[in-house]
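pls design
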């Protein structure tokens, strides 16, 4: 997967006039509702206990923090203090992820690095608790954020970036329809270690096809009675129409 991504080159540079500027709308701190999941603006008091449990128990959940800037935390109180800081940010909008049927939040994601004037936005600080990982609820949570930003708010570029060593995150980006753009080497110092950052994006002219593939995959008819998908989302994205980004 990683070697294949690194053979994809950026599409030709363009210097054409933008005749229709993006609407310059900032995402609202409002719920996003799907079939399998609900996203709610982060509330440290209400979401904190369930998020702390999902991110720290069982022990396997601690692997969530291997590639994130923060965490884990020693106590619920310390974690909730950090969540309060997240919820208060003006340049990021954090959401708690509540799967259908769960008794609380099981993950988190945020809108970040927002430049509404230019129509650029990023989904980041994503983590899923163990029971949310590799589920249609997890996929739908990110689809809801993508669709809100690209379809409803008219953004022209959706970004995804991650530690270049994080194979799971890079695979998730490709599965969601993001195209690999390249790596910033020696980009940051991360928990005392060098971080090379892999960059991905979905552009506005690519989004309609990506959206159709995601909607088809998320349709209830695509799942058997045990909730197992009948088709591969990764394969569908890999087979989609060639992009102008592919040269040669």
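designed seq:
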């Amino acid at each position: 997967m990683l070697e294949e991504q690194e053979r994809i080159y950026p599409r030709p540079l363009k210097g054409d006039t933008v005749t229709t500027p993006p609407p310059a709308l900032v995402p609202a701190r409002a719920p996003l509702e799907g079939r399998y999941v609900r996203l709610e603006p982060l509330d440290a008091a209400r979401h904190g206990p369930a998020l702390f449990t999902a991110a720290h128990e069982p022990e396997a959940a601690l692997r969530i923090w291997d590639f994130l800037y923060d965490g884990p935390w020693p106590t619920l109180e310390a974690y909730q203090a950090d969540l309060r800081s997240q919820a208060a940010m003006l340049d990021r909008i954090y959401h708690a992820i509540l799967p259908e049927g769960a008794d609380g939040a099981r993950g988190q994601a945020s809108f970040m690095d927002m430049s509404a004037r230019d129509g650029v936005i990023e989904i980041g600080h994503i983590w899923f608790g163990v029971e949310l990982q590799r589920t249609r609820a997890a996929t739908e949570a990110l689809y809801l954020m993508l669709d809100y930003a690209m379809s409803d708010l008219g953004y022209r570029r959706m970004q995804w970036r991650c530690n270049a060593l994080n194979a799971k995150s890079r695979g998730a980006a490709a599965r969601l329809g993001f195209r690999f753009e390249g790596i910033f080497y020696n980009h940051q110092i991360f928990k005392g270690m060098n971080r090379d950052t892999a960059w991905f994006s979905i552009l506005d002219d690519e989004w309609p096809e990506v959206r159709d593939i995601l909607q088809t995959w998320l349709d209830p008819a695509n799942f058997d009675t045990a909730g197992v998908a009948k088709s591969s989302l990764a394969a569908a994205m890999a087979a989609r129409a060639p992009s102008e980004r592919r040269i040669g």
